[in-house]
Batch of 4 targets.
Target 1
Amino acid sequence: MGQPRYQRDGGRASGPGFGVTLHPESLEEPLHWRKPRRVFVNSMSDLFHEEIPDEYIDRVFAVMALTPQHTFQVLTKRPARMREYMTTLDVDGVGPF
């Protein structure tokens, strides 16, 4: 069922085909779109899942910052991690935002 690139077995809680899979090769796609679009980030997953590294989230937000013509929607079931990410300073003391 579904496309092979999205099939990765998850744990007991998520079941087969629902493991966390990163697609860094797709991150730059919005940089090439000419017309403004509405983008549902991680429509079938959660950007703030504990298996998603902060560095990957940094890259997602960098693309969002570089493409203000698009509207990005980010939903999460992990508001505590999102709050921590948005408010924690990085090693340079600059923080994500």
Target 2
Amino acid sequence: MIFIISDLKATALLPLADEYQIEGLKQLCVTELKKFAVPRLEYVSLGIIYNLDDLLSAAIETCAKKLGLEEIDRQQNLPENKDVVDDKLVLRILRWV
């Protein structure tokens, strides 16, 4: 059986998949999140929180290529990123380019 999920559903399901150790669902969420068209620091946060190096790398690369400093700053202050994305990580994103 093949399941198709959106990036919004993947961000909601990933914490549950991690908590209940459902590896197939967790990987499906990561695969979907790596396809994102709109760069979001939330995906960087998810990569950090759930120790998903492949998602973290893809999210950093996409944010570095597509977000300006003002947008990075705006997203850094969103509730889902505030405690995870620190200035050191923002510098890492900015230096990636």
Target 3
Amino acid sequence: MAKAERGHFTGYWTLPGGYMDHNEHPSIGCVREALEELGVHVELSSEAPVITQRVFNDDGISFVSFTYEASWTGVAEPLEGGGGGKHAAGIAPRRLG
């Protein structure tokens, strides 16, 4: 997870995420964003998301979010260009409650 430095979630710990490239499948974007924002290569357990969230509200926030189950067994690579979060950390599932 990374602490967001921009957007609606500034200051909060979030999963890596971002905009998809034109004609990019969301599962490919998930893998790319994990590398760009956290410096890790992940492998998805499925191309189907485990959570799909659609948010459209009167505050002008509108997005569709896909969350995937993934595994990672490597070492984090140094981030180039700062990534999407200044602080990053691995958090064990048992700590999430």
Target 4
Amino acid sequence: MSAAAFFKRMLNADGALLALARLRPRSLLARLVAGLVCALAALAIRGALSAWYGGSTGFVVMLPGVLLAALAGGRLAGFVALAGCLAGGWVLGGRGA
């Protein structure tokens, strides 16, 4: 597959999610890292957008990060991302976020 075809496929949301869902199971460490990376990315996006939306959405902004972690790394990565987003969300927005 050429580089152009690869990027064209990855820009297609359905193709990217399908490729992500078909990843082979990884090691325990890889799943933990996938969960942490997705949680940090979701927290960074929440922090960057907090000036725009205020505190009205709370944890909803971080849901795609948890879903992507679970899709890429399974239940363990999803639970790690969920815990990371909850802990980070409380730190960023206080317990009432």
